[in-house]
């Protein structure tokens, strides 16, 4: 199979306008230090992601039972639905340590997602599969010929493509749905893997609840996938996903700014900074709204709590992340 046929898309004014709007919103996310959720909202975002991911796949679990399951995953009961919730929870916790462009990591994520739900979890399918998008009649039959090579080629395309990562991540999403590398769980894996690719460029995607916005327009999601499959052009599917990303960012930015403590600010800085030593002025570059006295207090508290190591004094003071 020529992966070039999968990754073809036409560019529309709608797509370009969405791309510009999303990049503007991501700039605002950076300026407002929203790369990570406030502590009290982190759990809510995670529950939303798990619940929405499963709802797209037809799960009837409400958000409250999902929250109960995630509170005590080792004690979860309730059959397949509970196991799906636990697996999705564990996969979302895992993905930050996985490389979105490595085939082994993709299979590992699938193994976690489909643990106990598919006999061949984490292994590529070896037989043909009917392709359906909600209709009783299959659109086509997907063969399994050269599946490892096709997946590797798709991941290589996603890594090396020169177009904006926002667009390429949507193509990756479509490509995984089109190829259907596994006997089950391809849709949820495609959404997870697009998230992982976007996290590589913008940490906010680790918690941004894009899945919830896909769920709200679920019929349009499957219609866009089917249309792209039939036409051999995933341009409209890209525009559909960009709309959902734009909606999720707009909702995030419409909320009041969270009140950040000094510890929160240091955590955000360390997440973005390299492991090299830095000075107070580097910290102030990320938080220009702070006074020098507040910045010094943040850093001193981080040294006291062993999050940072200090060398030098006054103007020569340097800080490094504790090991």
What would you say about this model in short?
This protein has 323 residues and is mostly helical.
Describe the model.
A two-stranded antiparallel sheet has the order 1-2. Strands 3-4 form a two-stranded antiparallel sheet. It folds into two domains: 252 residues, Fic-like fold (Orthogonal Bundle), CATH 1.10.3290.10; 60 residues, Arc Repressor Mutant, subunit A (Orthogonal Bundle). Helix 3 packs parallel to helix 10 and helix 8 runs antiparallel to helix 9. The longest helix is centred in the last third of the chain and has 20 residues. The protein has 15 helices and four strands. 59% of the residues lie in helices and 4% in strands. The radius of gyration is 22 Å and the shape is globular. Strand 1 and strand 2 form a beta hairpin. It is mainly α and 323 residues long.
Order of helices and strands: HHHHHHEEHHHHHHHHHEE
Total DSSP E strands: 4
Spatial order of strands in the largest sheet: 1-2
CATH superfamily of the largest domain: Fido-like domain
Helix content: 55-70%
CATH fold-level assignment of the largest domain: Fic-like fold
The CATH architecture of the largest domain can be named as Orthogonal Bundle
For the biggest sheet, the summary is: 2 strands, antiparallel
The shape is: globular
| Radius of gyration using CA atoms only | 22 Å
Number of helices: 15
Helix/strand-derived category reads mainly alpha
Number of domains: 2
What is the average of the pLDDT values? 90
